[in-house]
Amino acid sequence: MPSLQANGITIEYEEQGVGDPLLMIMGWGAQLIDWPQGLVDIFADNGFRVIRFDNRDSGLSEEFYWEPPSLTQTFLKGTLKRDIPVGYDLSDMADDAAGVLDALDIDSAHVVGASMGGMIAQTLAIEHPDRVRSLTSIMSNTGDRVNGRIASKLIPRMMKHKPSRETAAVEGAELFSVLSGPHFDYEASLERCHARVNRSWRPEGSGRQIAAIAASGDRTEGLKNLDVPALVIHGLVDRLVLPSGGIATAKAIPGSQLLMFNDMGHDLPEPRWEDMVSAIRMQADRADHATLHAVTS
Known about the structure:
Layout: E1 3-6, E2 9-16, E3 20-25, H1 37-45, E4 48-53, H2 71-79, H3 90-103, E5 109-114, H4 116-127, E6 132-138, H5 155-160, H6 168-179, H7 186-199, H8 203-215, H9 220-224, E7 230-235, H10 244-252, E8 257-261, H11 273-296
Parallel strand pairs: 3-4, 3-5, 5-6, 6-7, 7-8
Antiparallel strand pairs: 1-2, 2-4
Helix pairs in contact: 1-11, 2-8, 3-4, 6-7
């Protein structure tokens, strides 16, 4: 896979398809390969130039070395709304995304983000509005620390999740079995987890990313000022980011559309890929039509 220089750091990325640029931003601790290839194929078949990249501190993109607080400290300080010392936050990661577009000579793109990637996508739309043609936020929240929180019963499980490289694939698949909806396939998940660990193993990077999330502010007011076609997708059985996160996001963004699936957890279930792509394609067409109308008026 190729790499580029964006926002002063090295970013690993991959492109597929020809058409409208679609920037896809993955979530906490995830890599560009965590966008299922079958889903990417459908996007490409629907007229998108799909651009995936590894966030800083994940996959093969640049690694940082500041010491993050422990997950317990991050959770407690975030809950108590206390300052969390970090070397970067979601604004820096949004600047990375804008830098990817710069490096590829793309003025603006349709932007899709999942989980933490949804937070980065929202931040990109708020802080770089001219770069975002349409916004899709999947299984994410507004950062208000009230809506879209983790289910309380899941907290002890997340706190105990500290796998070694040797156990990461198996423990990862077991964790995804808890986070995912009813379409979860253990063997497929285990294969993806092995691929993820073999490609890159950066648990410290995940710690820095979760601290960056906790240190970033509430985006609600910024979302209220957006003037961009927006789609919010969320699973009704999501336990990592409760459905209230998606509802709050849709309420905050003027004119946004909310699409919720009763068979989706904190995952991207294959039976819903066509529905997701169709909805995102409609958002993109809506954005492009509005732009064309503005130019010709």
